[in-house]
Write a structure and sequence with these properties.
By secondary structure, the chain is an alpha+beta fold. It has two domains: 211 residues, no CATH class; 90 residues, no CATH class. The chain contains twelve helices and 15 strands. Strand 3 and strand 4 form a beta hairpin. The radius of gyration is 19 Å and the shape is globular.
């Protein structure tokens, strides 16, 4: 479907108060529309439980992923900017775009800088297993890295980050005490913002150490979290038209042709997720997935570290020169 890889975006990031040796100072993220579309699957709040929601969660993802060709552009310098259409949205509409970008860019940052391979939304996990919680002050995302669980609070801002946001974000990202019985290895807050109206996106990430006294305990185990992570991918693939590329029989692929996007997953993981969801065959689920990922030729198949593949075909859309260079 995609002859050449999508052009890369660049976004500058700054980090504050991370533990020594984890990540310090700042730098640039290099990513593309495939990375953004993948992150929008992983961080979506809509669960993949078709017994209760039908295909609604997949349609919800299609709605969010369409924000990329509609509102995202790549300028001459490679920076991620917003389209003219995005800048003409009313405030409430622009807030929605900024929210989705904040979630997606937090996932991209965590995968590329912290090796978090499976980052999902807390709400999706809680809805999947009927977990109840008190209050609204909690982090958005959690996922597994080689060093342990990572908790992240994500924010998106259509302008510059307000001065008091860092304090609010620190409270939310400290709001998780344990994940599946383990203390998080790292908790961070991440803000994607546009300090200059027509300028490029920037990221700020914070990592204060102190935990809240009434912090949330995310129950369950790695098997439950892993199933909740993959269910939306399976739902989306099943909604699309079935497609198999030459030499790619190891993948199950859903094609959304006219929309310029397709989503794939290793066939062995797809089948294991189906067994877990339909037959409640959960014993050793997470370990089964990890074995598959260790043995599969992920790079050769062009897959993300979680065994998925998201291909987008929007080179013309994101390169349209409908933004200003006056910055």
């Amino acid at each position: 479907m995609v002859a050449l890889p999508p052009p890369a975006f660049e976004a500058r990031y700054r980090t504050y108060a991370f533990p020594t040796g984890v990540i310090n100072g700042g730098g640039k993220l290099s990513f593309n529309t495939d990375d953004l579309a993948h992150a929008l699957v992983a961080t979506g709040r809509a669960p993949g439980d078709r017994s209760r929601y039908g295909a609604a969660s997949a349609y919800e993802w299609l709605h969010r992923v369409s924000l990329i060709p509609a509102y995202i552009r790549r300028n001459y310098h490679g920076r991620l900017t917003r389209s003219r259409l995005a800048l003409e949205l009313d405030r409430s509409e622009l807030v929605g775009v900024s929210y989705a970008l904040g979630q997606a860019m937090t996932a991209v940052f965590c995968r590329m800088e912290l090796a978090v391979s499976h980052l999902l939304h807390v709400d999706r996990y809680f809805q999947q297993y009927g977990v109840q919680f008190n209050g609204r002050k909690r982090a958005d995302l959690f996922g597994l890295s080689p060093n342990g669980w990572v908790v992240a609070e994500a924010k998106g801002r259509s302008r510059t980050m307000e001065s008091e946001l860092r304090g609010k974000l620190e409270l939310q990202k400290r709001s998780v005490l344990t994940v599946c019985g383990a203390v998080p290895w790292l908790a961070l807050g991440c803000v994607a913002s546009f300090p200059i109206r027509d300028g490029g996106m920037e990221l700020d990430a914070f990592d204060p150490e102190k935990a809240e006294p009434d912090a949330l305990v995310i129950p369950g185990g790695a098997d439950d979290a892993m199933l909740a992570y993959y269910l939306p991918f399976v739902t989306i693939i099943d909604l699309g038209a079935s497609a198999t590329d030459v030499g790619q029989q190891q993948l199950v692929v859903g094609d959304f042709g006219p929309l310029g996007v397709r989503v794939g997953l290793l066939r062995s993981i797809y089948q294991r997720v189906q067994r877990g969801a339909q037959e409640r065959d959960m014993a050793g689920f997470s370990e089964d997935i990890q074995v598959v990922l260790r043995e599969a030729p992920l790079a050769e198949l062009g897959l993300f570290p979680d065994g998925t593949r998201v291909d987008t075909n929007w080179p013309d859309a994101v390169s349209v020169q409908d933004w200003s260079e006056d910055f």
